C-alpha cells in the first residue's frame, strides 16, 4: 500500500479494504466464539426430544441469524464505500435532490 499510496489515493482503498475484511473478520470470530460456547456447555442440546436441535445445530442457527442481521449494516457500509460517484464526470452529476 505504501508504495502506491499516492496513485491509489483517488479511489480510497483503505475503507474498501476494511469493509471487506470486516465481513470476514466478524463471521470467522463469531463462529469461533459460538463454538467455544458449545464447548464449555453454555449452548446445549435442546432437550430429550428426538426431533430437537443439537448444540452444534443451535450454534450454527444463531450464527446464520447474526450474519443476516450484520449484513444489513455491512450492505449500507458497502453502498457508501463502493460508490459509483467517483467514476462519473462532474458535469454529468445531477443536482442534489433536496435542492430541486
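-> sequence recovered:
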Amino acid at each position: 500500500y505504501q508504495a502506491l499510496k499516492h496513485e491509489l489515493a483517488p479511489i480510497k482503498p483503505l475503507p474498501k479494504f476494511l469493509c471487506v475484511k470486516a465481513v470476514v473478520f466478524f463471521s470467522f470470530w463469531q463462529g469461533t466464539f459460538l463454538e467455544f460456547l458449545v464447548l464449555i456447555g453454555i449452548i446445549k442440546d435442546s432437550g430429550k426430544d428426538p426431533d430437537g436441535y443439537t448444540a452444534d445445530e443451535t450454534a450454527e442457527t444463531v450464527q446464520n441469524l447474526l450474519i443476516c442481521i450484520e449484513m444489513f449494516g455491512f450492505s449500507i457500509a458497502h453502498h457508501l464505500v463502493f460508490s459509483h460517484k467517483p467514476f462519473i464526470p462532474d458535469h454529468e452529476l445531477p443536482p442534489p435532490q433536496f435542492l430541486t
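Helices lie at 5-8, 13-39, 55-81.
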